[in-house]
Amino acid sequence: xxxxxxxxxxxxxxxxxxxxxxxxxxxxxxxxxxxxxxxxxxxxxxxxxxxxxxxxxxxxxxxxxxxxxxxxxxxxxxxxxxxxxxxxxxxxxxxxxxxxxxxxxxxxxxxxxxxxxxxxxxxxxxxxxxxxxxxxxxxxxxxxxxxxxxxxxxxxxxxxxxxxxxxxxxxxxxxxxxxxxxxxxxxxxxxxxxxxxxxxxxxxxxxxxxxxxxxxxxxxxxxxxxxxxxxxxxxxxxxxxxxxxxxxxxxxxxxxxxxxxxxxxxxxxxxxxxxxxxxxxxxxxxxxxxxxxxxxxxxxxxxxxxxxxxxxxxxxxxxxxxxxxxxxxxxxxxxxxxxxxxxxxxxxxxxxxxxxxxxxxxxxxxxxxxxxxxxxxxxxxxxxxxxxxxxxxxxxxxxxxxxxxxxxxxxxxxxxxxxxxxxxxxxxxxxxxxxxxxxxxxxxxxxxxxxxxxxxxxxxxxxxxxxxxxxxxxxxxxxx
Length: 480
Fold this sequence. Notes:
It is an enzyme of class 1 (oxidoreductase). The chain is of the alpha/beta class.
């Protein structure tokens, strides 16, 4: 029986290993983590992450060929294939601060593997890592090898949150990179055989190590670039009276471009896009490519500009001050169908409004009050460290309350900001909401989910990103 161990029981490690266990009943899969609370959650009825379909898979496999444990060293020593899925946060100090990936957790995982291994291992990079990480890991393992042979593979994940299980069941591609030696190719085949249990062979791509590592960063950079491109256009649409939905639809009809990732919004979020582009920028700078670095930097700058523009629009529309006013925030997760708040644009929008002394009432379908308070009081990049190394109990932000439904959040508010495209926000009773708000009542739709015309008929002043401006808004330009 092949034994697989995954170090790191997070958003990537947990679902990926659960699906491998389900699809490969002959393989024993152990997911290990030093966080006892996280492992306890994976062993409970309330899993630490929400993904459609994940619950059923874990319950079906747990106790058979899938186990979650804090006995890290034991399972690493027993495994044939070790997936490493640990945090790779952006450095906040020292060389490359604000851009480079911090590989502290990766290095300590590699040293631990070298310490406890008594048989040959295949070590698989599952976390998103900078190009040439595999080489560094290989050096650590070979210099501490005690005669044991290691093969390093890069097998980046391409999961989209909210559809992670579907993405694992039916991936566009599985990418495996390894050394171009006989041993390296043998290791690639071993991992390929695992995926071949359910993934068609023509979707399993094999490359060299560096290509696999760079492909992940490049894919995320291309996706983020599309969002920043459409968001840049949305600003121009507002200035000229064009409608971004119509422009995006027309552009997306070109088969060379396609319609995906062309929805204008308040900005992109999630754990990967910003981090991976910063990483790409740093790698370009280190390799003497400043022009390439500046090109990719602009993708993040447009994203920051879009969030600032949204905050400025809110403040300028409401007589240039939100001080002491209640603003309802509908949606805090970075996109619908997930409880994930990592790098969500809602954090920067909320902080911008709090900076102008607004009082916020926040409602999200999935995100807990504790998580919202934690996000609003944490420093940038802190979220990407293991939970036990994050600030223990962040002080709650006084001007922030968390509501249990949208009606409670909007009661007595001056304005509403829609920051996540949850389906329920499309079907709210806006007549009822309008009746319980201060007048004039504003809706700032950061996701283009509401029917702006219907809301205007009720009496709202509506701002939709990239759409022709309300007469009220034209009179109060948002100065950036």
